[in-house]
UniProtKB/TrEMBL annotation:
It comes from the Bacteria. Keywords: Membrane, Transmembrane, Transmembrane helix. It comes from Lactiplantibacillus mudanjiangensis. This is Uncharacterized protein. The chain crosses the membrane at residues 18-41, 56-77, 98-122, 128-156, 168-187, 199-220.
Length: 225
C-alpha cells in the first residue's frame, strides 16, 4: 500500500509545473481579498464576506478545483485488469483528487489568513477567528463535494469532459439559486453565521461527501470498464 501512495506522489510530481500554475492561481484568488479587507470592509460581516467572496469562489475558485482535479488525476481504468483490485484503482484516484484539492485550498486559505492577521495587526477577535476557521473548513468540504461528484460521474459515464462540464453546470445552477435567496448549503459559507448552525452544515456536507464516495466505490467495484 505504501508503494501505491509513493507512485501517486510520483505521478503528481511529474506534473509539478502544472501544479505550480494551479497553486499560483489559487494564491491570486487569496490576494484579491486585499481590496475587500483593507478598503471596502467596515465591520465584521463585510470583512468576512471579503474573505469568502462568493463571486470569486463561483467564477474562479470552484471551477479551478473541478478542472484541476480532472486534469491532474490520471484515471487508469486499465489498471484494474492488471492488479485485479478495483479498490486500488479507487484509492489511487481519490488520493490524486484529494491532494490536488488540498494544494488549491492551502494556497488560497494561507494567503487569506495572512491578510486577516495583517488587517487586525495580529489581534484577531476570537469570534471572527472562529468564524473564519469554520468558513475555511466549509469551503474545503464544498471543494471535496464537487470533486467527489465529478469523480462519480466519470466512473459512471467514462468521460472526463462530461464529468467536468456537468459539475460546472451544477455549480452555475446552485450559485444562481443562492443569488435568488434560496438556501443552497453550498454557498452558505459566504455569509456570517452562528457556530452551532455552521457545525450542523459541516456535518451535512461530510455526510454528502461520504455518501457520494461510497456510491462511487460501489460503482468502481461493480461496473465493467
Amino acid at each position: 500500500m505504501n508503494n501505491i501512495w509513493l507512485q501517486e506522489w510520483g505521478r503528481l510530481w511529474a506534473k509539478r509545473k502544472l501544479l505550480v500554475i494551479i497553486l499560483l492561481i489559487a494564491i491570486g484568488c487569496g490576494l484579491k481579498e486585499i481590496f475587500d479587507l483593507f478598503i471596502y470592509a467596515t465591520n465584521f460581516e463585510s470583512l468576512y464576506e471579503g474573505v469568502f467572496d462568493r463571486f470569486l469562489i463561483h467564477y474562479v475558485f470552484l471551477p479551478l478545483t473541478i478542472v484541476a482535479g480532472s486534469v491532474m488525476t490520471q484515471y487508469r481504468l486499465g489498471d484494474s485488469f492488471i492488479c485485479q483490485k478495483r479498490s486500488v484503482l479507487y484509492y489511487q484516484t481519490c488520493f490524486q483528487n484529494i491532494m490536488t484539492t488540498l494544494i488549491i485550498w492551502l494556497g488560497w486559505s494561507l494567503v487569506s489568513i495572512v491578510l486577516v492577521l495583517i488587517r487586525f495587526q495580529l489581534h484577531v477577535p476570537v469570534e471572527f477567528f472562529i468564524a473564519n476557521v469554520l468558513g475555511f473548513i466549509y469551503l474545503l468540504l464544498v471543494q471535496l463535494l464537487f470533486v467527489s461528484g465529478s469523480l462519480g460521474i466519470y466512473f459512471l459515464l467514462n468521460n472526463k469532459v462530461v464529468s467536468v462540464m456537468t459539475m460546472l453546470i451544477i455549480n452555475i445552477g446552485i450559485f444562481e439559486a443562492s443569488m435568488r435567496g434560496v438556501s443552497t448549503l453550498i454557498y452558505d459559507f459566504s455569509t456570517l453565521g452562528g457556530v452551532s448552525v455552521r457545525v450542523g452544515q459541516l456535518l451535512i456536507l461530510i455526510s454528502l461527501i461520504t455518501i457520494l464516495n461510497l456510491l462511487t466505490y460501489w460503482l468502481v467495484l461493480k461496473r465493467e470498464f
